[in-house]
Design brief:
Shape: globular
Helix content: over 70%
Distance between the termini: 38 Å
Order of helices and strands: HHHHHHHHHHHHHHHHHHHH
Structural class: mainly alpha
Number of helices: 20
Number of strands: 0
Strand content: under 5%
Largest sheet: none
């Protein structure tokens, strides 16, 4: 595969990644408008993500196995097309009940097999020497696309007088974009075996690999690392907007623009993290994680003790920094699989296993934190910030374990579970 074809393929996957999640995580940009459009409170907003997370939990493992057994291209295309149809269904009937149903369906159209297929497709374009850089470029491309979509969302909301109709049109545009992306991937993406490469992965994968991976300690260490990174990321993205509007009196539209910076502009900086990992940290993603977790602990502690007299501009900057750091982590998150010496033949399956728990914050963080804010008001935000500090400490411990595991593996003291299936 030529370099040009490689990066065109990578960007096609980036577009898919961006578009398939644009409505699922619309609250990152338009939290309060979503509440108004569907007539819901903070707790109910959280339950939308719980429905999504429940479906993901059900689908991650079988979806990962499917990603290892079947065509990556077909999985992505079918999922994108179905996602577009489900999104348009939401635009037809914008009620809380329909939203619960659609968010559950989103778990199958934007997670299930496409999640593992996208990451496996990206990793198939990389080597052990550039894994973090390739994954960060993929995430960067997603950031570019989501930024453009996010700007259009806030602009549409600002220019359409009826807030419910504004949200409806945002949903329609996103649904159409998903269907268009299905066509883009169909024409640009090529499966490994069709590139003239080997289909060795499909021939070697067996269902007993799942049992071996479940029994392997490194699987659960990777799962815990993903849990900590993702948990801190979604909290930094979601709850600083209502914090600024509820506590600091920031206008909803201004908070929306900050939401775009957090969730859509910051991802465009992810190649920086990939470069740092590959060039300065000896290709160790976990070293970057440990440094970032320490920085986040300090940042959340500072935010908790911000004086009432602090200049609003400084408060806004402080509210952006946790999202910046956690986004850099997320931009290289799955390159940790390469660091942990995970074989390509089980890449999709271990992504599925790790994602079940790793992405479970979607299931309970939103309703839990939404309930805390509803019950405690402004004091609830400090409870959330303390929780993120605890998560940071846990993440540092897990990353230290993964590095010790890799050191023993490279010394020949341990082997991956999939190499010991006959024992």
């Amino acid at each position: 595969m030529t370099t040009t074809r490689k990066y065109c393929t990578l960007f096609a996957l980036s577009i898919s990644y961006a578009v398939v999640y644009i409505i699922v995580y619309l609250q990152y940009v338009l939290y309060d408008p979503m509440k108004e459009a569907f007539g819901i409170n903070n707790t109910q907003m959280g339950f939308l993500m719980s429905c999504y997370a429940i479906g993901m939990t059900i689908g991650f493992l079988p979806g990962g196995v499917i990603a290892d057994k079947f065509s990556t291209k077909k999985i992505i295309v079918i999922s994108l097309f179905a996602n577009g149809l489900v999104t348009l269904l939401l635009a037809i009937k914008m009620t809380y009940t329909m939203a619960l149903i659609v968010w559950f369906l989103f778990s199958f159209t934007s997670a299930f097999a496409i999640w593992s297929a996208l990451i496996k497709g990206v990793m198939s374009l990389s080597t052990k020497d550039d894994g973090a850089r390739v994954y960060s470029i993929y995430y960067f491309g997603g950031g570019v696309v989501t930024t453009l979509l996010g700007i259009s969302q806030v602009s549409m909301y600002s220019h359409i007088s009826d807030p419910v109709e504004a949200v409806r049109w945002i949903i329609i545009v996103s649904g159409v974009a998903s269907i268009i992306c299905a066509g883009v991937v169909w024409f640009l993406f090529t499966d490994v075996k069709d590139r003239g490469g080997s289909d060795e992965e499909e021939e070697k994968f067996e269902f007993r690999h799942v049992k071996a991976l479940v029994k392997s300690p490194i699987t659960w260490a990777l799962t815990a690392a993903i849990f900590c990174v993702y948990g801190i990321r979604i909290t930094g993205f979601t709850y600083f907007n209502p914090y600024l509007t509820d506590i600091k009196g920031l206008a909803i539209t201004d908070a929306g623009w900050l939401g775009i910076i957090r969730s859509q502009v910051f991802p465009m900086l992810s190649p920086i993290a990939g470069y740092i990992v590959d060039k300065w940290l000896h290709k160790s993603t976990t070293k970057l994680f440990s440094i970032a977790f320490a920085i986040l602990i300090v940042l959340y502690a500072v935010v908790m003790f911000v004086p009432e007299t602090m200049n609003l501009t400084m408060v806004l900057i402080l509210s952006l920094l946790p999202a910046l750091v956690s986004t850099l982590m997320y931009g290289v998150m799955f390159s940790v699989l390469n660091e942990a010496r995970i074989p390509q033949i089980v890449m999709g399956t271990i992504i599925g296993i790790a994602s079940i728990i790793g992405y479970s914050p979607d299931m309970f963080f939103y309703p839990l934190f939404g309930s805390v804010i509803d019950k405690m008001g402004g004091a609830g935000y400090n409870v959330i910030f303390v929780g993120m500090m605890v998560l940071g400490v846990a993440g540092m411990v897990v990353c230290s374990y993964i590095r010790r595991y890799v050191k023993k593996y490279d010394a020949g003291l341990i082997k991956p579970a999939v190499e010991n299936l006959d024992k």
